[in-house]
Amino acid sequence: MNFPENLKYTSEHEWIRVDGEFAYVGITDYAQDQLGDIVFVDVPSVGEKLAKGAVFGTIEVVKTISDLFLPVSGEIIEINATLEDNPELVNSDPYGEGWIVKIKLFNASELDALLDVVAYRKLINE
Q1: Cβ contact 19:108 at 8 Å
Q2: Which domain holds residue 12?
């Protein structure tokens, strides 16, 4: 499985990639593998402001729906519209074309509480 070193991770299997005051959020390779074939991604409206740990959407697979949790506080400024017609991109390219939302960070210090790649690998191997 692929776990890029330039990302931060959550124990709920989301990743975050920071780009200045903005960040991209998605689910990890491990999460998409455990879920199976993703058939639908539902996320809130652009402009929604959410706290760290808040549910920011859901991912639907054939037999279940899973909540998505925001790794840090922020405002949804963009939704990956490509996922509307191609939700399987989350399976095939979870860290690239399969990103789910772009947010404006409210408190960058919240990133310090997230897992680095070593800690995340340890989490999923326990």
Answers
A1: no
A2: 8-114
